[in-house]
Amino acid sequence: MPSRRLFLTSAAVVASGVIGFFAGRQGHAPTPAPQTPSIASPSSGDRPLIGIASLNDSNYIRAVRDHGGIPVVLPNTDGSVARIDDYLEKLDGLLMPGGLDIPPSEYGEEPHPTVSVLSDERYRFERQLIAKWIKESDKPLLGICLGSQWMNVASGGTLIQDIPSEKGGNHRDTLHPVTIEPDSRLSRIFESSGFEVNSHHYQAVDTLGQGLRIVATSPDGIVEATESTDASRFLVGVQWHPERLIESDPAQARLFEAFIEAARNHAVSK
Q: pLDDT digits over 86-96, tens only?
C-alpha cells in the first residue's frame, strides 16, 4: 500500500534522526542507524512500527530498535491530539514511557504535596492517546513506570500518590525483588517467578482499573506490574525500567522482544 510505504520510510528516517540527536546530547558516540528494512506488507516480515509517546530518554528508542521494531516518536507539541486517530491506524504497537505524575484530579483526588505533575501539553496528549489505544484498538501496549500508571488510570483505577507516607518504605532510586504470578503473560515472557529490578517511582497502583490484573508485587505488597485480563491481548505495564537494565541484565530484553513480536503478529493477522 503506497501510504504505508511512505509512512514506513518517513518513520525510519525520523527514528534514525532522533537516535542521533539524543546520542549527541548525552555524550555517546552516535550509533550507526540499522539498515532500513525492505518496504513491504507486514506479512512479508516487516519490522513493526512502535510509537513511543512523549519521548524523554533515548534508551526507549534503543530498546525498540535493537529488538525488532522501528521506533516512531510521537510528539506532544501544543498538547495536540489531532493525529491520534492516524497513530491508531498506522502504528503496530505503543510504548508509554516514564515521566512525571498524572494530575490526581484525573482519578478524582486532591494532590499530595509531593506530586509533580506532567506538563499540560504532555498530559492532554497522553491522556487521549492511551484512552483511545486501550478502548478503540486491540493493538499491543507496553507501559513503563508512568506508562504503567497511565494504563491503570485510563482503565478507571487510582494511584497511591506517595508510597513513603501512605504505605511506608522506599521505591525511589533503589533495587528490590519482585514476585511474578505464575499463570501470567509476564511469567511466560521471563520464564521466571521473580527477579531483582531497579525502582525509580514513589507512586503505584491503588485501586485496580477495569480489565486489568495484578501480576507482580514487591515484598512490601506494592503493585509492580499489571496486564490485561484478556489473554489474547498484549497489554502489560511494569513499574521498573527494563530499558535501563538490559546491559546488566540481558533477560530484561525479553519484555521488548515479546512486545515487538506481539505487534508484528497483530500486523500480520490484519
A: 999 999 999 99
Tell me, what's the pLDDT at 270? 77
In terms of Cα–Cα distance, which of 131, 148, 134 is closest to 96? Answer: 148
Overall average pLDDT of the 102-129 stretch? 98
The greatest distance separating any two alpha carbons of the chain, rounded to the nearest whole angstrom, comes to: 55
Distance CA 108, CA 49 (A): 35
User: Cell numbers 548525552 label which residue?
Assistant: 26
**What whole-number distance in Å separates Cα of residue 101 and Cα of residue 78?**
18
Cα 121 to Cα 56: distance, rounded to the nearest angstrom = 14
Q: Do the strands 49-53 and 93-96 form a parallel or antiparallel pair, or are they unpaired?
A: parallel
Instruction: Name every residue whose Cβ is closer than 8 Å to that of residue 81 and which is 6 or more positions away in sequence.
Output: 124, 125, 128, 129
Q: In whole angstroms, how far apart are CA 8 and each of 54, 82, 103, 257?
A: 20, 20, 34, 20
The whole-angstrom separation of Cα 206 and Cα 102 is 14
pLDDT mean over 189-207: 97
Judge contact between 54 and 121, C-beta under 8 A: no
Answer left, alpha or beta for residue 45, where phi above 0 means left and psi between -120 and 50 means alpha. left
Q: Do the bridges between strand 159-160 and strand 204-205 make them parallel or antiparallel, or are there none, so unpaired? A: antiparallel
Cell numbers at 137, concatenated: 484498538
d(CA 262, CA 141): 9
What's the pLDDT tens digit per position in 69-80?
999 999 999 999
Domains (range + CATH), the chain: 2-269 (3.40.50.880)
Check the CA dihedral 253-150-90-21 and report its sign: negative
Radius of gyration of the chain (CA): 18
